[in-house]
Amino acid sequence: MTAIALDGWYHPDATTFGDRLAGAREQAGMTQGELAKRLGVKKKTMEDWENDHSEPRANRLSMMAGLLNVSISWLLTGQGDGPSEPEGAVLSRTASGLLSEVREISVQMRLASERLVRVEKELQALMREPEIA
């Protein structure tokens, strides 16, 4: 099986803040507990951030970016200076194809979610209008 380099392993459209945080933390060789301790937060808080249940405040975000050697912009959006690809990161053509499909589905889900929010707001606005008899 031919192997190809893992291209764009943190694609901005396919990862969340939590994904990027967890990946950068792992790349820095830290556990959740270690990073939490260095940031002065509870491990549960770190878990919530990595699971996208909440996001850190600006001061913690700044500290986090410094500790993980990534830009704040990258943590928030996936754009900017992020961690380098893991050494020797190689995927088979099959795995690479599946990864591409996962990314595509993720983008489609994000777009569908945004559309759902828009339609729901329109529906709520219509339901607040008085009924005309």
Structure overview:
With 133 residues, this protein is mostly helical. The chain has a single domain (3-128), classed as lambda repressor-like DNA-binding domains (434 Repressor (Amino-terminal Domain)), CATH 1.10.260.40. 60% of the residues lie in helices and 5% in strands. The longest helix has 36 residues, at 93-128.
Structural descriptors:
single chain, 434 Repressor (Amino-terminal Domain), 5% strand, disordered N terminus
In short:
The protein is mainly α and 133 residues long. The protein has helices at 17-27, 32-39, 43-50, 58-68, 72-77, 93-128; strands spanning 3-5, 90-92.
- The chain-level structural class is mainly alpha
CATH hierarchy class name: Mainly Alpha
Question: Which shape, going by the Cα principal axes?
Answer: extended
- Count the domains: 1
